[in-house]
Design a protein that fits this description.
Blueprint lengths: L16 H12 L10 H11 L4 H15 L2 H5 L3 H7 L6 H19 L12 H9 L6 H11 L9 H9 L9 H11 L5 H14 L20 H7 L26
The chain binds iron/sulfur cluster.
Iron/sulfur cluster binds next to helix 9 and helix 12.
Length: 258
């Protein structure tokens, strides 16, 4: 049974995105904006992070770098060697050839694994460039551009998607991919990073998938889903109606952070 609450129609938000960012930031911030990794490293980490936890993907990434030292060495390694190194990240049989393929495609098109030139491109072009790489969807491209290159690219992960739906910032039929465009148009560029980290913190800590803690939520007063969840909370937690939109429970990539 789904635990989400976006069932029969669009919920109207009673809070603006900027107010939600402000309230969540005051609760979960301040947020550190240091670049985490070089962009090519971030590309590899985003592939490793697909369908696994942050802890597993980080471990797999560290093992990969300990084993090969550089991504250039990974690009020319045997797939089986890469596979062995990234086993803790899961789906190694799929991720190993993909990592090797992506690195070699970047080398082929760019001559180097230095992707800092993306910073000089208009945001849409930089996103399109990255999305031509296999396995790099809107979320991965957003993470690479936002976290590694400091660009105002939206990256909607499963937590952010859930919070946006419950707050009525996106409609019930909006897919996670489409949510990128909608939220990018709703959040001013200077606030995109703060939006990402505040909403993800809120989704992880309070607006959880199974049991949202509405009683301690900083945006509860503006949340059109609060009444539903508060009314259905009991010893076993809130339950959503049987016809709940199953898209909310479709497995999506987990966020990653080092
Ligand atoms: S009130 Fe509840 S459902 Fe709404 S954002 Fe807060 S925790 Fe999530």
């Amino acid at each position: 049974m789904s635990s989400d609450h976006q069932v029969t129609g669009r919920l109207e938000p009673d809070i603006s995105v900027s107010d939600a960012i402000r309230l969540m930031s005051s609760r979960y911030g301040p947020f550190d904006r240091k670049p985490r990794l070089e962009p090519a490293h971030e590309v590899v980490l985003t592939i490793l992070s697909q369908h696994t936890s942050d802890a597993n993907s980080s471990r797999a990434f560290r093992r990969l770098m300990d084993r090969f030292g550089t991504l250039e060495a990974v690009a020319s390694a045997e797939v089986a060697q890469i596979e062995e190194a990234i086993i803790p990240g899961g789906l190694a049989k799929i991720k190993a050839p993909r990592i090797r393929q992506v690195l070699n495609l970047v080398l082929e098109h760019n001559g180097t694994l230095d992707l800092s030139f993306l910073r000089e491109m208009p945001l849409d072009e930089a996103k399109a460039w990255l999305r031509k790489l296999p396995g790099i969807g809107p979320k991965s491209a957003g993470i690479i551009l936002c976290f590694s290159l400091g660009m105002p690219a939206m990256a909607i992960d499963t937590h952010i998607y859930r919070v946006c739906r419950r707050l009525g910032l996106i409609g019930p039929k909006v897919t996670a991919d489409k949510a990128h465009d909608i939220m990018e148009a709703s959040v001013i560029p200077e606030q995109v990073f703060k939006f990402h980290v505040s909403f993800i913190s809120h989704g992880r800590q309070v607006c959880k998938a199974q049991r949202p803690r509405c009683a301690e939520c900083v945006v509860a007063e503006g949340c059109p889903s609060r009444g539903y969840f508060m009314a259905h909370e009991d010893a076993s937690g809130p339950e959503a109606p049987a016809l709940a939109d199953r898209r909310a429970n479709t497995p999506v990539q987990l966020p990653h952070s080092l």
